[in-house]
Amino acid sequence: MAQRTVADHDNLTTYEISALNAEIGVSDGHPRQRPSPGQREVLNSLPRLLAEVETEPFEELEKRAQRGFLSAIGQQAAPVAAGRVLSAYSSSLAMDVVGRALAERSARVGLVHPTFDNIPDILKAWGIPLVPLEEEQLVEGQIPAPVGDLDAVFITTPNNPTGTFLSEPALRQIGEACVERGLLLVLDVCFRGFETRFQYDTYALLEEVGVEFVLIEDTGKLWPTSELKLGFIGFSSACSLALSEGMSDLLLSVSPLVLRLVGELAGQAEEGGFAELHRLVAENRRVLTAALAGTSARVVDPDSRISVARVELPAEATASDVYEQLKEGGLHVLPCGPFHWAGQAEEERYVRIALGRDRDLIEAAAERLRDHFLVD
Amino acid sequence: MAQRTVADHDNLTTYEISALNAEIGVSDGHPRQRPSPGQREVLNSLPRLLAEVETEPFEELEKRAQRGFLSAIGQQAAPVAAGRVLSAYSSSLAMDVVGRALAERSARVGLVHPTFDNIPDILKAWGIPLVPLEEEQLVEGQIPAPVGDLDAVFITTPNNPTGTFLSEPALRQIGEACVERGLLLVLDVCFRGFETRFQYDTYALLEEVGVEFVLIEDTGKLWPTSELKLGFIGFSSACSLALSEGMSDLLLSVSPLVLRLVGELAGQAEEGGFAELHRLVAENRRVLTAALAGTSARVVDPDSRISVARVELPAEATASDVYEQLKEGGLHVLPCGPFHWAGQAEEERYVRIALGRDRDLIEAAAERLRDHFLVD
Question: Are A83 and B258 within 8 A, CB to CB?
């Protein structure tokens, strides 16, 4: 038996790993739909792109990719030219570097609750004390008490799995509160490619507010590129964290080929690719929602646009049991318990269904779910 | 100015980053030679490989790539089938996961000295107390005192930048000493693809000795694949470190496409590709050595076969000064000071020259060096 497919799952990723070979795998939030014709064309041109990057100065290539991706998601003010955007192999690696830098400052961090558990796990591994901040209050622009002894606030926006995001007024209010209280603001914005309402220029807003900030960006949730992806760390001019130093211990540079690939896909996304992706996710959410109508379960977060959906279970069911029952039939979903890293009571009420899949797979998953939850 | 090309270099990688666009860049040890015709053929087939991996079960693909690569470098007993080989985006990420697991055990680590500074830097970031172990004694099979309060021994073999490696008797002796004293043995074997004398089956030997061990393997030093690469962590059946847990916080899976690419290149390496690579490195070392004959500098470590060479400077020169002088002429070398992470006196005596380059670039670098060090 493989070491990583442990029987007693210790975190959400181990559930996702054990679903990698599933008959119907809607466990992980990675993009697993078939590439669109345009994306396939870019992927077919990989050898040409490789030949081209071999002669291109690295710094120009990196800055062009960063600018291309970040402006495709509305971030014109991202500090690419100023050298305040760092590239990493993935957003989790970026998170690890941020965790290390926060630990060096002995920061006490207020972290959104619930959220994907590798965030609290990475921060805890670095010895960082965490205080849960409920997302209901954060989206209202409030940093829930107690904050007296916080050094930083860490918010996933849009949040995973709920899709909740900070509106412009809410983010401004939180930024201003951070300035007032001397707090660093860290935003994990990995899912923002799906949420056009969170594509207002965050860098411009936060620099205007004058808050010390770190943003973690991600290309990895969007395009089916066999995990060829990038994470980015963008940070404020006033940022005192040792981010460049930590990153240089972990990598010399990301792949020139992947930089080029991201640049090409970002360009294509702006010219209709994003709209197509957003339609796929919206349609998959509708299919799932419709299939569960009239059953004892239901899709919640109707306003969410990110590539996962939460399903609320009937009162008598638990996520752990439902996960096991569905798995026996070859359907892998993700039980939501571990998202509730501070251990709230509602943790067993939800499972998560990935929507970054082809329509036929979602239909198959939806049918199984409907059969399972159909009230006799 | 870019944030990462800091003026006052804090580690070796920042020197290497500032050399990425150099006229003659022999700073970093990454493979930057032109792909061989066979490698180019594999790279040209990336679109086909991508289409193939889209339908292949991930676990099989991963195990096949791990087995292909590890057996190409003599590691038939690597515990692939047992699930005790973990894949990562890079060897540095693997190192980070090992550092985290050592920190969880509050391990005090004896670390080879000198070695590439990102190893002590990553371990120190995790709060791990380090004790320097001189490589001269380690290669004799001795763990230098004091070891009374060590929990683990960490050895880079072949070592960077010296190329020194542990012979089979020396490794056996160190393994046995670790068993006797209850020490965990960690080996960074990232450069072993160049050193056939360190391709005896390390896993078989260490399992026979019965020592608790962790090995960090790397495909990233070998082939010019635009940084598409993998790091692996192989560990003993008796290994108590929480490696899988740490890895699952940082990644769900590596890229199926990169797994396939590594498998293809490993197969090709066994069938002549490694011999060709070893010839390139040996010829480049000869060119450099010959060019410096009769000058005030000289190539040392004549027995080394790894893809970097150390150049000893004349007594009156320092590595920092020579680095700056050569850089003004467009030649980027790596000053060896930071390799001596425990701060020994000889640290300013060497610069390092990368050999994983095309012959003409090495000739150009060698000529500049000869001009610089020619005794009037």
Answer: no
DSSP state of B333: -
Domain assignment present for residue A277? The answer is yes
Chain A hits for B16, Cβ within 8 Å: 252
Of B11, B59, B257, the CB nearest to A249: B11
A242 part of contact set with chain B, CB < 8 Å: no
**pTM of the full structure:** 0.96
User: In the listed set B199, B234, B267, which residue is the last one of a domain according to the structure?
Assistant: B267
Percent of chain B past pLDDT 90, that is, above it, reads 91
Chain B hits for A244, CB-CB cut-off 8 Å, are 3-4, 6
- The enclosing domain of A156 has a CATH number of 3.40.640.10
A244/B contact by beta carbon, under 8 A:
yes
* Within a domain: A173: yes
Whole-angstrom Cα distance, residue B324 to residue B314? 16
ipTM for the whole complex:
0.96
Q: B37-44 and B256-268 helices cross at what angle (nearest 10)?
A: 150
Q: Which residues of A166-179 are buried (b: 16+ CB within 10 A; e: fewer)?
A: beeebbbbbbebbe
The CATH number assigned to the domain holding B336 equals 3.90.1150.10
At B25, phi and psi to the nearest 5? -105, 105
pLDDT in tens, A266-298: 999 999 999 999 999 999 999 999 999 999 999
Task: Determine whether the interchain pair B6/A244 forms a contact, defined as Cβ–Cβ distance below 8 Å.
Answer: yes
